[in-house]
């Protein structure tokens, strides 16, 4: 809902009284207004409070809906609060359901009860309430929300805006956001009415004060004039005065001129004396009647400013205490103006006293002439002069009373409505286009932000790019993620993608060894797949009819024997500590292929590092290199212990395992350090557990690696079908 007000602002083209017949009387009505002042008045909570009380805006109605309750303008029954609205201490929500013509069911969050229509009932922390029949004949269930007056005021203040959109004109735009168009128009119209009433009341205060002062003075002058006239009548009767000589007429004419001037002077002195009494009353500052001294323009300007400050002080005291800095600032300005006005009055009184003294001297000279007139005529002249003085005072006050009364009658508000409150043809909030645009923008932006934050917070290796950014070591191969729990994925007939990756790794390894035959497997930490890769690479090499030896030299935590399902027996540690043992006693078939043999770790020794570099270990490794085409050494993680560095002396190449979404990015500095410091002579990386995203070519096994895997899709389908039938059998 919106409306527009036109404010009388002399700074922007004059007020509404400027062109009227009473424009010259507008100064009697007190301080002039401006657009900025009126904007601040419209924004006050006191004005909103008056509107809330008048419109009962602390009570709202709603109609139950499937998703949310919809606001309701005209319910079947209206809530009437019989207590003082300020007695509402906390909000309350009611649900009203029709039972019969004269009975309704009221339900709250914790109770349900029945009430009669138009019969008062008490609600705790709310007061007396009555339900009255509304304008809707068809009864229906509806909700009622009763809020505290302060909550209603704050809510409407948040939805109410006052703006001056054009600084070149004196118009004010009012906007009130409300879910119900008709109700919003009512509230905004009521707010404007309250503003106009307050504006007129403040302007009438000055006029009423001036009329009261003039009435008091008129009553006194009327009594004095009646007394003088009675004395003249009695004098004439006692002296039987019928006519006055020509000389008396001339003297009386001159005396009348002096009397008139002296009367005006005395009138002004009396007015200044009354004004001084107003100003000397410091404890009770009040508006000062204006324009009672018409000849003193400077004093009238001070009176206008003084009355404006008095009215501003009364407005501030409605919502603030006297200790408020704004109130104290205005009181200081009032005190300064009061001092200036007192000084001005004192200066004017001195000038008038001097003028009166001069007039008295002239009157005394005339009196000396009149003394030569017969005593009877002189007595009459004195009484006539006194009568003229009182008449002049009476006429002056009567004129000012008429001017003030006319000005009060012609008093109008500083503003008028030029655009009545009306609702928009379509809701201005929420704006659908903006919400759709914002939703589309967020729909694109949120995934990007999520991915960015996810990448920012991620500390593990997620892609080959993470590896390439942190190390320049070559990548021998990659191993995709496998859903199968089997430890051996490379067989004579396997055609899966992961099997092809191991075959590609085997081919690359032949070029990397450059005639060597010993391979060391290590990583940064446990569970990165060293044993899995070593087992399957050994099987892949055995498929070339090569003799392959797999050595379980992780003496601290061996795992190959357990993964192959073999019983623990004599192994490397037994051979080293028992000189009588032969090499053939620790070599046993692996069970994965006839060309793959295994050397177990043996008993867990207390000093594994010393065993790995013993002379007997060196002799063992020398002998095994002569017997086998390939030796694969499963070593502990190099990021935890130094065993892998000790074993590197027996190997021709070190394969360093990096597992996707498991290895920390900072751990890639370990192989870099080993190469840069010549701790291990040759290191190549193997990326394990790579998750391949589904694509059009996904069913053919394309992804990281070097093999096509023609049978991967068929194998995955068979695996899924076997798992399905296993679940069916279990169920």
Set out the fold topology.
Layout: E1 2-7, H1 35-42, H2 45-55, E2 59-63, E3 70-72, E4 77-81, E5 92-98, E6 103-107, E7 112-116, E8 121-123, E9 127-133, E10 142-146, H3 149-159, E11 160-163, E12 171-176, H4 181-239, H5 246-280, H6 297-319, H7 325-370, H8 375-409, E13 415-422, H9 432-457, H10 464-470, E14 475-480, H11 497-513, E15 518-523, H12 530-542, E16 548-552, H13 560-564, H14 572-577, E17 587-589, E18 596-599, H15 608-612, H16 615-627, E19 630-634, H17 643-647, E20 653-659, H18 669-676, E21 683-690, H19 712-730
Parallel strand pairs: 14-21, 15-19, 15-20, 16-18, 16-19, 20-21
Antiparallel strand pairs: 1-12, 1-13, 2-3, 2-10, 4-9, 5-6, 5-10, 6-7, 8-9, 11-12, 17-18
Helix pairs in contact: 2-3, 2-4, 4-8, 5-7, 5-8, 6-7, 11-12
How would you describe this protein?
This is non-specific protein-tyrosine kinase. Pfam families: AAA_31 (PF13614), GNVR (PF13807). The protein has 731 residues and is α/β, with parallel strands linked by helices. Among the domains are: 2-200, no CATH class; 464-703, Rossmann fold (3-Layer(aba) Sandwich). 48% of the residues lie in helices and 15% in strands. It has 19 helices and 21 strands. The chain has an 8-stranded mixed β-sheet with strand order 14-21-20-15-19-16-18-17. Strands 3-2-10-5-6-7 form a 6-stranded antiparallel β-sheet, with no helix packed on it. Strand 2 (59-63) and strand 3 (70-72) form a beta hairpin. The longest helix has 59 residues, at 181-239. The radius of gyration is 54 Å and the shape is elongated. Mean pLDDT is 80; it is low at 13-33 and 694-731.
């Amino acid at each position: 809902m919106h409306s527009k007000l036109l404010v009388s602002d002399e700074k922007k083209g004059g007020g509404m009284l400027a062109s009227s017949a009473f424009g010259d009387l507008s100064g009697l009505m007190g301080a002039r207004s401006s657009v900025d002042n009126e904007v601040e008045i419209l924004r006050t909570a006191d004005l909103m409070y008056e509107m809330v009380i008048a419109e009962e805006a602390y009570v709202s109605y709603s109609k139950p809906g499937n998703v949310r309750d919809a606001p309701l303008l005209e319910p079947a029954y209206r809530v009437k609060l019989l207590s003082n609205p300020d007695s509402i201490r906390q909000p309350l929500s009611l649900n009203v359901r029709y039972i019969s013509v004269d009975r309704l069911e009221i339900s709250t969050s914790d109770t349900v009860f029945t009430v009669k229509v138009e019969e008062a009932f008490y609600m705790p922390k709310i007061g007396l309430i009555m339900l009255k029949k509304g304008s809707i004949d068809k009864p229906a269930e509806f909700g009622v929300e009763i809020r505290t007056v302060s909550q209603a005021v704050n809510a409407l203040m948040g939805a109410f805006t006052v703006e001056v959109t054009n600084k070149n004109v004196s118009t004010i735009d009012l906007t009130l956001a409300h879910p119900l168009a008709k109700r919003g128009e009512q509230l905004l119209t009521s707010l404007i009415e309250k503003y106009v009433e307050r504006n007129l009341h403040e302007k009438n205060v000055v006029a009423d004060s001036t009329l009261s002062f003039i009435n008091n003075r008129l009553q006194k002058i009327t009594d004095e004039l009646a007394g003088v006239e009675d004395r003249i009548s009695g004098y004439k009767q006692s002296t039987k005065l019928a006519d006055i000589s020509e000389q008396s007429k001339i003297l009386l004419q001159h005396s009348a001129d002096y009397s008139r001037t002296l009367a005006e002077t005395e009138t002004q002195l009396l007015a200044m004396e009354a004004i001084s009494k107003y100003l000397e009353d410091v404890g009770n500052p009040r508006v000062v009647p204006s324009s009672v001294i018409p000849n003193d323009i400077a004093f009238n300007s001070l009176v206008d400013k003084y009355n404006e400050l008095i009215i501003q002080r009364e407005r501030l005291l409605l919502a603030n205490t006297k200790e408020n800095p704004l109130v104290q600032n205005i009181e200081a300005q009032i005190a300064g103006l009061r001092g200036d006005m007192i000084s001005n009055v004192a200066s004017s009184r001195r000038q008038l006293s001097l003028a009166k003294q001069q007039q008295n001297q002239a009157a005394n000279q005339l009196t000396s002439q009149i003394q030569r007139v017969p005593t009877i005529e002189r007595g009459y002249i004195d009484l006539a002069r006194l009568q003229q003085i009182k008449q002049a005072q009476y006429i002056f006050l009567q004129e000012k009373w008429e001017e003030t009364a006319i000005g009060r009658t012609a008093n109008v508000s500083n503003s008028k409505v030029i655009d009545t409150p009306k609702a928009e043809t379509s809701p201005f909030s929420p704006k659908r286009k903006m919400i759709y645009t914002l939703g589309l923008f967020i729909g694109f932006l949120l995934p990007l932000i999520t991915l960015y934050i996810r990448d920012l917070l991620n500390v593990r290796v997620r892609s080959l790019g993470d590896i390439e950014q942190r190390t320049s070591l070559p990548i021998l191969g990659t191993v995709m993620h496998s859903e199968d729990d089997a430890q051996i994925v490379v067989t004579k007939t396997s055609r899966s993608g992961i099997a092809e990756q191991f075959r590609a790794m085997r081919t690359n390894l032949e070029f990397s060894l450059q005639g060597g035959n010993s391979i060391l497997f290590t990583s940064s930490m446990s569970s990165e797949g060293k044993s899995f890769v070593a087992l399957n690479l050994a099987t892949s090499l055995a498929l070339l009819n090569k003799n392959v030896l797999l050595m379980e030299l992780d003496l601290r935590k061996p795992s190959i024997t357990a993964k192959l399902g073999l019983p623990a027996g004599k192994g490397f540690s037994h051979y080293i500590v028992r000189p009588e043992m032969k090499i053939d006693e620790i070599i046993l078939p692996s069970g994965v292929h006839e060309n793959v043999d295994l050397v177990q770790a043996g008993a867990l020794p207390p000093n594994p590092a010393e065993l790995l570099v013993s002379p007997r270990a060196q002799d063992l490794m020398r002998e095994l290199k002569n017997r086998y085409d390939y030796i694969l050494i499963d070593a502990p993680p190099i990021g935890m212990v130094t065993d892998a560095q000790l074993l590197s002396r027996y190997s021709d190449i070190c394969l360093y395992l990096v597992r996707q979404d498991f290895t920390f990015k900072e751990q890639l500095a370990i192989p870099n350090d080993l190469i840069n410091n010549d701790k291990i002579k040759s290191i190549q990386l193997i990326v394990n557990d790579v998750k391949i995203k589904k694509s059009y070519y996904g069913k053919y096994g394309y992804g990281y690696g070097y093999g096509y895997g023609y049978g991967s899709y068929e194998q995955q389908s068979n695996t899924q079908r076997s798992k399905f039938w296993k679940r069916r059998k279990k169920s």
